[in-house]
Specification:
The complex is a heterodimer. Helix content of chain A is about 25%, strand content about 20%. The longest helix of chain A is centred in the first third of the chain and has 15 residues. Chain A is built from three helices and five strands. In chain A, a hairpin with a 6-residue loop joins strand 4 and strand 5. The N and C termini of chain A lie far apart (about 90 Å). In chain A, the strands form two sheets. In chain A, strands 1-5-4 form a three-stranded mixed β-sheet, with no helix packed on it. A two-stranded antiparallel sheet of chain A has the order 2-3. By secondary structure, chain A is of the alpha+beta class. By secondary structure, chain B is an all-alpha fold. Chain B folds into two domains: about 70 residues, Helix Hairpins, CATH 1.10.287.70; about 190 residues, Four Helix Bundle (Hemerythrin (Met), subunit A) (Up-down Bundle). The N and C termini of chain B lie far apart (about 70 Å). The mean pLDDT of chain B is about 95. Classes of the chains: A alpha+beta, B mainly alpha.
Chain lengths: ~120, ~260
């Protein structure tokens, strides 16, 4: 009871207190973020992504995964993210590059001949 | 010490879902007790436990996000999806009552005299208090946006002033509606007109009260420096909810107050 009353007084006092150390009176995330949020923020500023928040930039249109094949089509199994247990299976055909329906990675067939 | 390698929040065990379920049981059975056995004990107990659950659950969320830093960007994204889905469900809730209104008013039955408004009903003048209410809510939409910009531009005093103004406008709306309810020449029992009018506007009024409460909580948190200029999702959720309440009123005003008169 008493602690709740003190807390109300504290809130009211926060209104009358002159503006805090931050210009304008509202802190930035840089100043106030804590815990995992702060760690993620600091890592992002350094260009790191240890918690895999961003999509992995793999196999874009300009740099597709080159798949060798001796016939005009071959089955591809895409493990979109590390440790995924659900493998995305699809036929890759000769010609235009195709994309994994789950993660969008580009695959292009490279036709080969059987040596004889 | 084991650390997680993902950015999501695995919440600690909490008693509030259980107390919330207990409150739901007490309120539903309490309602039946009130209807049939003239006792409000279970209902009151259920309401009390529901309020306590809400206070403590949301207090814990504030602690987890603001004080412990668990609300990383992916977690915030999830919270945004959650709020949007919740508001969408509320939209459908109101769609039901608008459906009932239009069903009854587009083809008035012989019992009503074949007219809408029904014979004997004197509807409220849409250009008196209801129009003032419209202006009040529209203005509150402006002030809540002003508060948001103050927050993003690290302007503490403007944020607090604009948010306070928004809450005052919301309370003014509630006061005006209460007065209108008291002074109305028809009641909820007056044919389907009364039913549709009071159920639709009544649920809207309840949502105004809920929205005002949410905004008051945001004001207290803002005073206590919880929000930063880039991370203030609680405020954004309250603002979204408030805009939703405003839009519902606009539909109510045009459909029931204006067209329906």
């Amino acid at each position: 009871m008493a602690s709740r009353l003190l807390r109300v007084c504290g809130t009211l006092r926060a209104l009358r207190r002159p503006p805090c150390p931050w210009p304008g009176g509202i802190p930035s995330n840089e100043k106030q973020a804590t815990g995992l949020e702060r760690k993620v923020m600091q890592d992002m500023e350094k260009g790191q992504d240890p918690y895999n928040i961003l999509q992995p930039k793999r196999y874009p249109k300009e740099d597709p995964n080159l798949v060798p094949s001796i016939s005009s089509k071959r089955i591809v199994g895409c493990i979109c993210e590390e440790d995924n247990s659900c493998v995305i299976w699809f036929w890759l055909h000769k010609g235009e590059p195709q994309r994994c329906p789950s993660c969008g990675a580009h695959y292009k067939m490279v036709p080969h001949h059987l040596p004889h | 010490m084991a650390h997680q390698t993902h950015a999501y929040h695995m919440v600690d065990p909490s008693p509030w879902p259980l107390t919330g379920a207990a409150a739901a049981l007490l309120m539903t059975s309490g309602l039946a007790m009130w209807f049939h056995y003239n006792s409000m004990l279970l209902l009151t107990l259920g309401l009390l436990i529901m309020l306590l659950t809400m206070f403590q659950w949301w207090r814990d969320i504030v602690r987890e996000g603001t004080f412990q830093g668990h609300h990383t960007p992916p977690v915030q994204k999830g919270l945004r999806y959650g709020m949007i889905l919740f508001i969408t469900s509320e939209v459908f809730f109101f769609i039901g009552f608008f459906w009932a209104f239009y069903h009854s008013s587009l083809a008035p039955t012989p019992e009503l005299g074949g007219y809408w408004p029904p014979t004997g009903i004197t509807p409220l003048n849409p250009f008196e208090v209801p129009l003032l209410n419209t202006a009040v809510l529209l203005a509150s939409g402006v002030t809540v946006t002003w508060a948001h910009h103050g927050l993003m531009e690290t302007n503490r005093s403007q944020t607090i002033q604009a948010l306070t103004l928004t809450i005052l406008l919301g309370l003014y709306f509630t006061a005006l509606q209460t007065m209108e309810y008291y002074e109305a020449p028809f009641t909820i029992a007056d044919s389907v007109y009364g039913s549709t009018f009071f159920v639709a506007t009544g649920f809207h009024g309840l949502h105004v009260i809920i929205g005002s409460t949410f905004l008051i909580v945001c004001l207290l948190r803002q005073i206590k420096f919880h929000f930063t200029s880039t991370h203030h999702f609680g405020f954004e959720a309250a603002a979204w909810y408030w805009h939703f309440v405003d839009v519902v009123w606009l539909f109510l005003y045009v459909s029931i107050y204006w067209w329906g008169s």
